[in-house]
Structure formats: structure tokens, C-alpha cells
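PT: before anyone asks, these are the final sequences, not the draft ones from last week. 1291 residues across everything. Please model them as a single complex and drop the result in this thread when it's through.
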Amino acid sequence: MTSIGFEGIAINVWLVWVLPFVGAAIIAAVARAGHRARDYTAVGFALASAISAATLMPLALEGAEVHSQIPWISSLGLEAGVLADPLSIIMTNLVAWISFLIMVYSTGYMHGDKDLTRYWFFMLFFIGSMQLIVLSDNLLMLFFGWEGVGLASYALIGFWYYDRKKDYVGVEGHIAGGIPMWTSPTHAGMKAFLMTRAGDVMMLAGMFLIFVYAGTFGFVELAEDPAWAIAMSQQNLLVPAAVLLFGGAIGKSAQFPLNEWLLEAMTGPTAVSALIHAATMVKAGVFLVARIGPLFFALASAGAFSVEQFFEVIAWVGAITAFLLATQALVNPEIKKVLAYSTGSQIGYMMMGLGIAGLSVNFVEGFTAGFFLLISHAIFKASLFMGAGALLHGVGSRFMNDMGGLRHHMKKTYVFMLLAGLSLAAAPLITLGFWSKDAVFASVLESGYTFSQPLFIIAVVVAVMTAFYTFRMLGMAFFGKKSRHIEEMEHRGHHVHDAGPRMWVPYGILAIASIAIGVIGFVFEADLEHILGEYLAESFGIQGVEEASEEAPLTIAPEGDRTWFGLNPIAAIASIGAFAIGGALGYVFYIGRQANPQIISRSIVTRAIWKFFYNRWYLNSALYWGAVIGPLAIYRFIWRYFESTIIDGINPALQQSMSYMSGIVKAGQSGITQTYLFVFAVGIMIIVMLLFL
Amino acid sequence: MAESYFLLAATFIPLLLAPVAYAIGRKAGAKSATWFSFGALAVSTGLMLIPAIGVYTGQQTVYVEQYAWGQFGNFGLRLDGLSLPFALIIYILCTVIALYSRPYMVHKVKEDLPGHGNGGEGGAAGVGGVGHGSSNDPSVHGSHAPPSENIESSSQATVLDTQQYVNSQVALYFALYLTFSMGMLGTVLATNLIQFYVFFELMLVPSFFLIAFYGYGARRRIALMFFFWTHAGAVVLLLGLLAMGFFAGGFDFDTIRTNASNIPAQWLPLIVFALVIGLGVKLAAFMLHIWLPYAHAEAPTPVSALLSPAMIGIGAYGLLRLWMELLAGTGSYEQYSLYINMWGLATMIYGGAMALMQDDIKRVLAYSSISQMGYILFGLSSESILGITGGTMMYITHGLGKAILFMMAGSIILQTGTRSMSKLGGLAGKMPYTAVIAMIGALTIIGIPPTSGFMAEWILFNGVLQTATAQMDPLRTTMFALGILATVLSSAYILWLYKRIFFGKIPEHLAHVRDPNWYITATMGVLAALTLIIGVYPDLFLNPITDYYSDVMFQGQEGVVLPVPSQDTGTELGVPPENTEQNSGGGVETAGAEEEGQ
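LR: through. Structure below.
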């Protein structure tokens, strides 16, 4: 592994993230040349970045790495650099191509918006920042990208900053725990920024701890010399530092307990939501874990100490989030929010996979599972979001109740969303979602971790819910009768129809890809596992079980024979079963409409549960009371009774005490002779008495 | 005598040309006065840059010009890694804001003209305590001046025409402005205690008049309060300085530094107390901040933009120079740093919390300045080179960021006539340039890359954490945690400010607001570009600062102040002795691996 300067293929690596920034920088100037030129430039830069990313693909397949550094902050001995290893090359391609498709989609979706220049600026900025996260070779530079995506998401979530009612999210009038549950775009942007900032603060603390001990931020340098990690683990600081770093991922990836911002983030244009959920922002956290997970794992085995708690935290945070958000997705009426909940939930799965990797005998398997799910989720979720955007465009409402029966009017959208939705619901054997989710199941089962059973049960339950809410969403949008809203629209002469090709082609491509790759899913998975296994062995010295068993033939093979397409039978049965149960329920209620979903309101128990889920477990309310209203009340108290009375009272008090004292002094200078004589006489008398007594 | 006179010229050109600026302003109008003052300051900045480049490239670590000054010792001007960032930022800001002043001050003077607007309301502001006077609605267009003040000027105005009056007022403004700039620069370049004090007070006088003549609300009262508090602080400081000089046997910095150990132990706490309180008033540290929200909110906005970022930070410079550098030999720094650290933390959180309670843009920014000064104190008292460097970087970044935000406030006042956020909203579409640049300023204050704010903050907090881990001190660790959480508070008040001004629905009466003219947007833009450049390439400032701190200021004090962690030394921290050998072996290996890499 060598590090090179700015030369050869390394230039391409730099270009991948620099190009979007260049595009962002010039977009305002290009806009003067006309709208068409501006739009082409924006998409062009995204494409150029994607092509540079594609040129790196052969490297990943060979298992090669490029590490290029240039001087940066010389006074602190820090260098800027990019690191293109198989992990980041696969990720960078995923980000680049999905972003490019979303940019193409945007030309249709955002057509005619008066602030399109600002839109392109932040979209390119977003992509560039994400690529910077992926390709950076050190934590400090990664943090530049990290905050860059935060900033871009803030700007894009609040893109429609004039806060029109139609851009709000949430049901107007819905109040939970005293907190209004519908928000304006700018409020949502601010919320996202502040909540992710809370995670970023943790991440910074973790980074600093590591820097204090290691004197470097570089991933390669950190992996080379475990001395710092040994020193830290002797003081019990390594796991806290690692968990703090993971805190950043919790914030960015909207994991429990910093999950609440993700839902309000739906105020942004749908193309932005697609970008946030599929390729950038929330995936940044997962990628960070994929970056640092092997590092800590390898350091621990090199230094003979344990970082198990770190991976346990990851796995459990993932499991809790997956469950929490899946329950909420069951009941939400807004199509984009259902998708948002599902993103959070799916990311929980990814975290579970990446976390379980560090707890199991075979690190490679869990790691591959988590990363595979990241890839497949990016593909089908981008497709679903763009499809949802087309629905919003066609129907003019974000509520699924306002849709219904659209399969005849929006055929293409219907087909593509169905395909991508099957992937989300993990329809067996032919979808990407199935293979990747099954890989997570298998890795949990085979991990040998003490609490792998509860984790597995949570995972299966979540899978049932996933299948259910996916069918619910598809059913409410495309099946059943037309809603009153649509009838009114038709009455007024608006006919709902499919969006133009600039919109449906991008999500069509992704939807088909999710099935096409799904059909050969097991091969894909095996290849991915091979590439990642080599990468882990090469960069961190983490051996997969296969390699290990070659060296030591007596090693016991992991339990659970992988025979049928390389599937773990229990995991496969569980995931097929989950799809069947969830899918059947969803079908009965929302597609076939044999049963009316209103039945839950008949029993007080189910109704209470429904309300609990619908009010988001009251987490949002707790958040507002604890972190916004509470502190503000305290500050107001201090403001009123300390700053405004005591501190501001110092001046008048000084002034009055001065005038009071001057009054006393003045009294002695009245100019009345009798008083002077009287005082004089008294004085004489006192002196005389003193002298004689 | 010195061999070259760059700094002497840079310092005194503005002072000498102040009367000329006044004369030009009266004769030829505001525009000429602006460009003349701008020219004078630009030339001075240029002159300062010549030795600055020498310091930057490392040709001379310290550049000094000295002149005999009778009994006081030497009158000197010194540019080194410590004064360079302060001096540069002060002059850059002064130069840029000189241009910005023109449209703003012309507007302000016209607004104060007798007979203009509805001057009746402002009278109330003069009555009652300062506190309540100025928090009266300061924002209604044209009602800022108490009528009583205009008696003299109204007789003038009947004789002279309006233009003449405006010219003379703006001319006076620029004369005072130039003197103010000189005072600030002189303070940070001084090499002698008495000289330091003289300049310290010299910057106070013109700023007093600037507020009293051109401010808002109960401006005379507030100017007086500002003068009173900072002067009282300066007098306390003077006592400390005199005691230092007396015990050390001379007022020159060099003398004091060499003889600092002569200071008797029982006097040392008193001296440190005097320095900290005296400079703390200037810094507006918690409990000593009484004057700041008023002065910053009611000063004319270009002056706020200088007061807040440039002037109050000089308190931090004073602490660095007078306490941490000159008294380094006495051991007082490590003795008291923990308390200063706590004080900084309290200032940081308190300022941020109070900023959330304001409705007046300028008052939010004023409280934000208090909070940012807390960051600086927090960094300075961190006992690590990184932290102190971060504190210094914080001055730079706060200087740029806060100046941008105050200029944004000025732009809003100019275009909308109000600075009350409840009357604003949705201006992002109407004033796009202001909005974009203000966003960069906002990010600088929050500390988001790629602005300089992030560079300052990460270095600062890293230093604090370094000390906390090295000392294994739970108190310092807790303070680090609270401090870094306080950055969320900063983000909150800044974003909320931004949301209330630029987002949401536009009030009807603001439907025709536009961006101000280029004097304002361009000057803001220059500062915004600067913060981005420093944010991406901090070496511009960092190099001289860290070099000076580690090679000169804290040389031989490794036990007191922690060095910058590097890959070879980082792991030595806190490792039990038996492992040292193994670790140093690891270090060598790493170094070898690096060489291979290259």
C-alpha cells in the first residue's frame, strides 16, 4: 500500500468529489447564460463526476487501493488526502450514479421552479460533500464533507423557504403531547441541522480523543500503528471514543435517539428526499461505520483488547431503530413519510449487520450483509422516492388518502414502484431486498453473539412490518377506488397521468435494476463478499472464515450449513415467512380490500396502540419538551430575573447610590452659618471632653 | 532607533490623516472622505503586510521597531506570531468597513436630521434607566434621536443646507474612525506596558464619541456607560500594569518577561486579578458584560461591526500578552487557568442562552459576541498549544464572521428601517446577496466547515480535550463536554436569527425591499471570501501562530503547556512507563512507513 501525490489515477479520485463543487461554484454564473445551459451544466457535472467514479471501478475489482496525499495544515502536521479502496470505490459509484439519475429526474420534477439555480447549487454541493465523505482518507476532511451534507440538507429541506401551507409535512391539527406535529420547511431544516449537529458534536469529541492519542486523523495511519489504541484502551477510552464517533452516525443516519429529524425532512422537494435517503446524508452514517468498524476490529485483535461493546452499541441501536420506525410507518398517512420511516428502519438493519460483524467469528459476513443492504436500499429507495415524487406531482397531495386507484392512470409509475416496492418488502429470490436482508438475517444467526436470538426476532418482526407497510402504501396509492380528491381534480378537468420521460426513466432504471440484480442476487452477494473479504484482509488483516480454514483446516465450520443458493435455511425461511405474513396482511387490507382497516378502531387496545405509533411513540413531543421548550423556559427565567433585573440593575443602582452619597455630602455644605457653628461647638466640646476624661 | 518604519507608519498614518479626512469630508463630500479614509487604511495595511510577510515566511520570528521613550523605557511596535493575527484582522476589518460606512452613515446622518421622520417618539428613550430606555423599540424608522440633541444642530441646519450638514457629520465620523483604528492597532503592537495602556484608552475615546454622536436610542447615556465601564476596567488594569512594572524594574515587555519571577508571591494574585478583571471588562466576560449589549446594539452599525469583533477581542490579546506571555515565569497561568476556563464556559453558555431571548438583531449579535468571547477564554486557559492557538484563531474567525453578521444587520436596517425580527421575514428572496453572504457569516460563527469558524473551533476544543485527558481530570472533561455542547446552542441562536429574518412569509410592507448597493454587498463579500479561504487553507494564519507559541512564547514550558500531538508523540500521553519503549518503537516504525510512502 503506497501513498502517492496528485498524479495518475489519483487525479480521477480527486475529480470525483471536486467536480461537483466546481459545478456548484460556477452554476450561478452559468445561469446568466440561460436556464437550459444551467440545467445541462448541473447534470453534466454530476455525470462527469460519475464517470470519474466509474474509471475507478477496475481498481476495486482488482482489490487495489489508491492513497493520494497533498500538504494541507502543515503547522499541525496534517495532510489532505483521498483513499480509494474497494469499499469507497463501490460506494462512490453508487453515490455518483444514483445522484446522477436523481439530477436527471430533477430536471423534470423541478421544471419551472424560479429558484432552480439555488437548487442546483445545493444539489451539487450535496453530491460533492458526500463524495468527500466517501473518498476522504482522514477524519478531519471527512468531517468537512460531513458538515457539507448537513448544510446542503438544511438548505434543501428548507428549499421552499417561504413556508407555504402546501409545503408543510404532517397532518394539520395533529397535536401529540402538546406539540404540534406539522411543520414548515424552514422549521424542518433547522430541526434537521440542530439534531444532526448534536450527533456531530459527539463525533467531534470522538475524533479529538483519537487525535490526542494518535496525533493523526488518517485512516491508513491509524490502522498502521496500534500503539495509540493500546494506550487508549488501557485508560478505557477507546470504546467511548469509538461510540462517540458512532454518535455522529446516529445523528446523520437518523438512528434512535436522534431519529426525529428525518421525518420532517420530507418538506424538501421529493428529488431531494430521494437523494438524502438513497445516496447521501443518511448513508453517510452507515458508511462511517463501515469505515471505522473494521479499523477498530483489527486494532482490537492486534492489541489483544476488546471493543465488543462498541459493536454491541451499533447492533442494538440499529435493532431499536429498525423496530421503532417500522411501527410508525404502519400508520402514517403521508406517502413520503412512510418511505422516510422505512429508510430509518432499513438503516437500522444495516447498522445491525455492521454491528453484528464485530461480534461474530466471521467479520466479513456481517460486514458484507450490512454493506449489501446499503447498496440495494440505495437502489430501490431512490426509485421509490422518485416514484412517490411522480405521484405527488400527478395528484398534488402528499396524503395517500388522496390517491387510490392510480394503477390505471399512472401505469409506468405503478409498475416501477411495484418492482421497487417488492424489493423493499423483500419478495423472495428475485429482489435485491430479499438477498440483502437475508444476508443480514443469516449473519445475525451465525454470529455466535450471546444475544443474537433477540436481535434475530426483532429483525424478523421488522421484516413482517416492512412487507405490510409496503403493500399498504402500494395499495392505498394504486388500488381501490379513486379518492374524492382525484375525482374532484378530474371534475375540474385535470387528468392524472404519468410524468414525462425525464422523470420516469431514472426511476424505471433503478426499479428494473433492483429486480435484475435481484435475480442474480446470490452471485452478486458472493462477489461482493469476495471483494470486501479481500479488502478487509489486505487493509486490516481481517481474515474471512474461508481463508482462515484454509490455513488451519481443523477450524470448526460456522454453524448453519449454507447449501441452497448459499442460503442459511433458518434465515431464508424466516424472511420468506415474514414476507408472506406481512404481504398477505397488506394485501387483504389494502390491495384486495377484503377487510377494512378501520377494524383497529373498534377495540380500545388496538386503537391505543395505533395512537401510540401515530404519535411517534411521543418521542417527538419528549424531544421538544426536553430540548426546546424546557431550556427556553430556563433561559427566559434567567433573562427576566437575572439579566434584566440584576445585571441591568447595576447601572441605575450605581447611579442612585452615587446621588444618595452626594446628598449626604451636600448636606454638610449647606452654607447655613448656624449649622456650621453648631457642629463646630459640638466638636470643641467632644475634644475638650476627650482631653479631660 | 529602528531600521525600518513600516509599523510606525502603519500605526500613525490614520491618526495623522484624520484631520485631513475631516477637511476633505467637509469640502468635498462624503464620498471623497470615504475613499480617502479607505486609502489611508489600505496603505497602512499594506505597510503592515511587509513585515508581516517576513514573519509569516519565518525570516524573522519577531519584528520590532523601537524608539527610546524617556523614563518609561522604549516605545516599540512589535509584530510576531501573537500580534500578527490580531493586527491583520483589525486593519483588514477597518479598511473594509470604511467603505461599508459610506452609505450607512450618510443614511444615518440624514435620518437624524431635525425635521426628518417622526422624531417625537425617541424622546422617551432618554428618560429612565438605560436598561429600559434602549430596549424601547429601537427600530422604528427615523425615530432614533432624542429631539433634545438636535437643538444645536437644528440651528445649524437652518443656516447651512442639508448637504453641508451631512458632509460635516460624515467627515467627523471618518476622522474619529481613523483615530479608533489607530488606537486598536497600537494596542496590539505595543511593547511597553505604559504604551499598551495609552493605546488601550486611545481606542476608547473615539469609540465613545462614535456612539454618542451617531448611535441609536439613548445614545449619549449608553456611550457614557460604555465609557464608564471600560474605563473602570482599564484603570484596574493600569493598577496591575504599574505593579508589574514596579516589581520588574521597567515597563518594557522584555524587561518584565525576564524579571517576572521578581514579583513577590503575595502580589502575584493581585496583579493577575487586576489583569483579568481589567481585560475581562473589555472582553465582556460573564458578569462584566453589562455594557456590551447596549453599546453594540446602539452603536452605528459599522462601528458595531468594529467594536464587537475587533475591539473586545483585544481583551483576549491582552490576556495572552500580559498574563500568559509576560508572567509566564511566575507559574500563575497554570495556577489560575482552571478558573478562567470555567469562567469562559459560563460566558459561552450564558451569552448563547441570552442571545436566544432577543428580538433585536443587533442584540442577538451582541450576546453572541459575549458567547464567542467565552470560547476564546475557554481556549486561552486550556493549557495546551492547540487550545491557545484555537483561541487565537477564534479571534480571527469571530472577527470575520461577526463583522459579516453586523454588516448584514446594517444592510437590513438600511433597507427595511427596522431591526426587530418580529417585523421581518422572508427576505431571502428579496435580498439574495445579503442572504447568501450572511449565511457564510452565520456558518462561520456556528463553526461549520469550510469556514474559518470550524478551523478555530476544532483546534480549540481539541486542545481543551488534550489537557483533560492528559491530566485525567474529570472536571476538565466535563467542561469540555459542556463546552462542545454549547456549540449546539450557538447553532440554535444563529439559525433562529437567520430563519426569522430570511425565511417565512414576507410582511406586506417589505414587499419592495431590495439588496443594498455594492458598497455594502461587496464589502461583505470580501470578508466572506476571506473566511472561506482561511477555512480551507488555515496555514495562512496558523503557521506563525503555532510557531510563535511553541518556539517562543511557551518555550521551556512543556510541563505547563501541552505541545501539539503528532503521530510520534501522541501515544506517549498517559501511557504507563513500562510501555514507553514499545511505543517509541512503534513511532519509529510509523515514521519509516511514511518515508516509504513518499
